[in-house]
Amino acid sequence: MTNLLNDAWELSPSVALRPEPFGALAYHFGNRRLSFIKRPELVSVVTALADQPDARAALVLAGVSPEQWPAYSSALRGLAAADMIRRRTSGTPRTQSNTSPDAQPAAGRTGTASGGLVKRFEYGLAAPICLTWELTYACNLSCVHCLSSSGRRDPRELSTRQCEAVIDELQAMQVFYVNIGGGEPTIRPDFWHLLDYAVSRRVGVKFSTNGVRLTPERARHLAATDYVDVQVSLDGATAEVNDRVRGPGSYATAMRALDNLAAAGFENAKLSVVVTRENAGQLDDFKAIADERGATLRLTRLRPSGRGADVWDDLHPTAEQQRDLYEWLLRSGEDVLTGDSFFHLAGYGESLPGLNLCGAGRVVCLIDPIGDVYACPFAIHDRFHAGNLLSAGGFAQVWRESELFTELRSPQTSGACTGCAFFDSCRGGCMAAKFFTGLPLDGPDPECVQGHAADALAAAGRTVPRPSQDHSRRVPVQIGPRPAAPPVRACAESPLAGLVVSSERGL
Ligand code: SF4
Ligand code: SF4
Q1: How far is residue 420 from each of residues 32, 322, 348, 349, 377, measured CA to CA in Å?
Q2: In this protein, which residues make up the domain named Radical SAM core (predicted)?
Q3: Per residue, what are the HEC states of 192-238?
Q4: Angle between helical axes of 160-172 and 191-200 (0-180°, round to 10)
Q5: Which residues, including other chains, have CB under 8 Å from residue 213's CB and lie 6 or more apart?
Q6: Could you tell which of 352, 424, 452 is best to mutate to test the pocket of ligand 2, judged by most ligand atoms within 8 Å of the CB?
Q7: Which residues pair with 230 in a beta bridge?
Q8: CA 344 to centroid of ligand 2, rounded, Å
Q9: Residue 349 needs a FRET pair 20 to 30 A away by CA distance; which of 154, 205, 393, 440 works?
Q10: How far is the CA of 196 from the centre of ligand 1 (A)?
Q11: Which ligand is nearest to the CA of 417?
């Protein structure tokens, strides 16, 4: 790249910038990359670019001394490589601005965060980076490991209008995107409307689905829509392995959905796999399924949350499989996404890509179908309930002021992990996994790869908390000991029972 300081630049039109105490987060809705602009001074330069004839003028305006220009030039180059800023086709500035930001050397990086930045994340952000919103507990499947014990719709589910109000609030908070899940979110008759509504408000949507409603027509519609990403769940690279966990016919449904997306030209869909004892030997096969369809493989960790608690003993990967998974992930690098869910494997030595941080209540949270807010999607329990967004103050107040989130953002003790050589990267592992196996929250992860949880797991009198709520209906597949629950009311028989098809918006 030639001297970029001579050129006229601007923020890319697909990028949103969100101020944070450390500087800003920049999110690109096209390539879905997140960049951390680690100093307020660099934010001032970036926001001044569009109003100045060239980048040098933006630096001068921001009061950056010439000896600091190389550092700023390098930071801007990083942002340009991620398409966060781009050259202006016309050298004419948008307007003339007399704002006078101060400046210091800074660096923007894409997708990674330094130790200092991670520390800032521990104290929480102005809004979540990764917000999961479960639109419904209704589901056409009954996967044995469902983290939210889904099946039946909750009659108190948020209405269309309430969902729109949530989206409006997320837009006001500059939440770049929401991960929408369930249950099976596409079962809601207003799902496609809510998706379009979010896109129209510039709130990106990543939604997880078992594929049941991803027809060729829907796939074409999605392929033509910016701001939308799709994750299709599959837990076996063969029908035999998948359907034992997710139910008969679910493999065919997911593969059909992936094929429909590929045929429609949807770029870079995600193939989402929960790694279990049964599929841990199929990682290469999963990768091939994704590659053949232009999709990206995303692996996540099995947690003992929801119905997952009943099957965790039987399904969580063996110690040998964990080691193989770790080596496989190291070899794959950033070609395979993990949602940062395997950072406990850093106990083997080298860290995997990601924040390596339990983000619960700090950068992550969950909104459930009735508007309850929890610290994380895997922590649906009264212990991690932060509030309800229908209360005065809405979601913003819950996120910023709830007692639970304040507690989670305060310095944590390392308990029995104190002295472990890997604590800085492993950090004692996953809070939810510890809680739902009855282990102390300040101790080792139940899958501690150094074996430090073995005694605690074997201890007599360990109490395993039950989920605070359960929307399961009759389970056609069963691996763990859970007996099939009898239906308790109409919506136990059908996930759609009680759903008003014509909503307040007439959809
Ligand atoms: S509790 Fe576990 S799953 Fe939730 S954010 Fe923390 S590490 Fe991730
Ligand atoms: S002892 Fe704690 S910090 Fe060390 S590897 Fe085990 S879980 Fe991680």
Answers
A1: 36, 19, 12, 12, 28
A2: 125-335
A3: HHHHHHHHHCCCEEEEEECCCCCCHHHHHHHHCCCCEEEEEECCCCC
A4: 20
A5: 184, 186, 187, 191
A6: 452
A7: 207
A8: 7
A9: 440
A10: 29
A11: 2
Residue entry with tokens 């997708």: 111
Strand partners, 20: 23
- Domains along the sequence of the chain with CATH: 4-89 (3.90.930.70), 122-458 (3.20.20.70)
Closest-approaching ligand to the CA atom of 446: 2
Q: What is the pLDDT of residues 89-104, one digit of tens each?
A: 765 666 533 332 222 2
H/E stretch holding 45: helix 40-48
Closest ligand to Cα 363: 1
Structure tokens at 46: 């970036």
Dump pLDDT digits (tens) for 76-88. Answer: 999 999 999 999 8
C-alpha 444 – ligand 2 centre gap (Å): 5
How many CB atoms are closer than 10 A to CB 506?
7
- Strands, DSSP E only, in 58-135? 85-87, 108-110, 130-134
Ligand 1 centre from 249 Cα, in Å? 31
Cis link prior to 428 (omega < 30° from 0)? no
* pLDDT single digits (tens) 247-268: 999 999 999 999 999 999 999 9
- pTM of the shown model: 0.84
Question: Which of 301, 418, 426 to mutate for ligand 2's pocket (most ligand atoms within 8 Å of CB)?
Answer: 426
Task: Compute the distance between CA of residue 147 and CA of residue 235 in angstroms, rounded to an integer.
Answer: 14
